[in-house]
């Protein structure tokens, strides 16, 4: 055993594996050959002694290094699993060049076939990991279950992830600047020599990154923060259309229904991947293989997430005959009530759509309004700021929007105080009849819970761009008055509005830097440098008055 392996095996056991007795060895620097001759580096964790009944070998593929704090390999091996942790191509000492998403299918398939040939392989194989480590699982699971079932994973454990990173990069036509440039910055820092240098930089406020969010054109943001172009960031900006081959060849959404192995998923109401992860859940449910699902009150990274202990329990149930730990397939946290609910499915049965209209008086109400409109001015040189919302930090959550709602570039519509509690359970959808003096505009919609004391706490939100390069094929045609009816899907939510609270809906034209500001010219996002001040108008009359459809659990 290596020195590090001995230290890890003696570390105080504060995780889900503490009830298991296994010590372990670590073999570092295994070379795994890919089909093109490139070798990827991996570490092999093996429990000491005989594990009865046998548990699967777990494969973890990561671009972030092979350390146990993210891969959870020490905890998994202490629970009796053999664990192979591999660095993705071009990272952590592995050969080749790192091209996010593009090589994970072929490298993952080659790795799984190699693992099955090794004498230390237990005979069954599971996959494990979160975020990009979850994407590497989707990259192989569907295709292998369909075309190579003998080498396919026998179970998947997926946390805060999705099968296609295109839609999170270009969310309904809007570029996810904070996440895309922030992630590129962190990956670029990993290329610096010395872990201490990287750790020191990671702890400091990243003023360069904050300044780079304001750079136009967007293609200059990576140079502003890193001092040089970052290849994949430039690729993302250059491909606004998700129908481009660049995105379609790295999307694995179509193969999700082909996954026949059991799946456990965990995510959070404030995670950046939440809508798409729940759509992947729905794909498997429609195919007759609904995953086990946990949704909690956290964001992309949280120590509160039970992903590790629940994954261990899930795998032991399937492969060791352990009794189930769950009374129902879905466990979801109801925000606003601060309660966990065990449910048969997501969304829960009994959810119905309620239509609430935006009135010119600022009222939100089921009644249909008369004629009228609401106007505001959007200035991309002073963009409407992001406030709360899904995030990658350790503690995202509801944020008070009361001051934000007093901005002149935010239109707000509020219901009367509720006579009875109202529970959202699903994905709200706004239908906004909208026109702009600019060639391109964004419509950003947020739902808030207005408390009797005046706090307006964020619940969920969503954005939709029209008039841009990436949306041209799907944009609705304007009517004779120049209005378009835009459908804006919001983040899924499970939230209780208490009696006496009010439901608020905001409509604005951005959330910078979470989403890059829309300069208004309709030019390609990568190169647009000029900005256009826009007069925006929401229509409340006509055959299709602006509204929001709320999925209400009764």
TrEMBL record:
Matching Pfam families: Peptidase_S15 (PF02129), PepX_C (PF08530)
Hydrolase as UniProt keyword: yes
UniProt keyword Hydrolase present: yes
Region (Disordered): 378-404, 534-554
Bias (Basic and acidic residues): 534-547
Top-rank taxon, per record: Bacteria
SMART domains from the UniProt entry: PepX_C
Record domain Xaa-Pro dipeptidyl-peptidase C-terminal: where: 312-549
Keyword vocabulary terms for this entry: Hydrolase
Family annotation (InterPro entries): AB_hydrolase_fold, CocE/Ser_esterase, Galactose-bd-like_sf, Xaa-Pro-like_dom, Xaa-Pro_dipept_C
GO terms of molecular function: hydrolase activity
Protein name: CocE/NonD family hydrolase
Organism: Micromonospora chalcea
